[in-house]
Amino acid sequence: MSMVAWSSSTDDACAIADITSLPLETRFPPFRLRQYGGFWLLEKFLEGVPALHSVFEPRPSDVVLGSFPKCGTTWLKALAFATRNRADHPPGGLDHPLRRRNPHDIVHYLELQFAVSMGHALAALPSPRVLATHLPYSLLPRRITAGQGCRIVYICRDPKDAFVSSWFFTNKTAAAERARAGGEEPPPYTFEEAFELFCDGICVSGPQWRHVLGYWEESRRRPEKVLFLRYEEMLRDTAGNVRKLAEFMGCGFSGEEEASGVVQDIVELCSLKSLKNMDVNKSGSHGPLAHESFFRKGVAGDWSNHMTPAMAERLDTIVEDALRGSGLTFDVAEPEPSA
């Protein structure tokens, strides 16, 4: 493990301590979390943050996709890549990169790339680049956020659905880790235990509401630099949000493209159903994570099939208290009925 922690108080990373001196949380198996700057970060991702701050050189044409985990990250990566690169890779093509590679193998996480290879793979990418991060806005390098920087697209989701999705993902990942290691079966990581941790803000990149708030506030201050998208609205009007995304990235659709159905081709190529059924996402893995683990239901309101009304009310109250006065509310869709 990297032995360097850092400070975000200057443009470049500043060595201040050993990462192992930061608060450690191990009750979120199989992930090890370290607390820094008021957030719980994946230990592996945190290792790359000092280099990200000191080495990364953003380009004016870069677009960085920000998200809290399990809030539509995979979908946004696919949509942004397909939209930005449609001239070189027509979305209706049978050999489109998204048909051959998982979205996470195409759009790289900044902090992970600097943890494993000092970002060399990112530097080799041609412009325009689409990149991604789970870091909160307050911990992004100033080279990204200050002055001209580059554009940021953030996607948010109802915290209750984000929690449920993360619990399923965590359990699936833990099971895969156990199968690989061949170790003893650990005590079950229950829904109730995970809920208590989530309410305390202890989860990957948590607290979720603070993560969302940072990007929301910046989108209000600089809407030309930060586009704030809502997962539920994207489900209701995917084509409209793809048009908004394209305009923000500086590659709006022409009248000819609209007439020929390019927008709908992108929507269909990147739909959860389409991505889920592609052979590349039925097998293979992204690092230790199986490709299929990135796809579940992808609906709004699934929380009602797993959380009690009391749990939902408690989490809603925590979030509402934290966001009071910000102007941000979560657009909660009506829960879908149980099957």
Automatic annotation (TrEMBL):
Membrane spanning residue stretches: none
InterPro entries: P-loop_NTPase (IPR027417), Sulfotransferase_dom (IPR000863)
Annotated Pfam families: Sulfotransfer_1
Superkingdom field: Eukaryota
Keywords of this entry: Transferase
UniProt-recorded Gene Ontology molecular function terms: sulfotransferase activity
Enzyme class: transferase
Keyword Membrane: no
Similarity annotation: Belongs to the sulfotransferase 1 family.
Protein name: Sulfotransferase
Organism from which the protein derives: Hordeum vulgare subsp. vulgare (Domesticated barley)
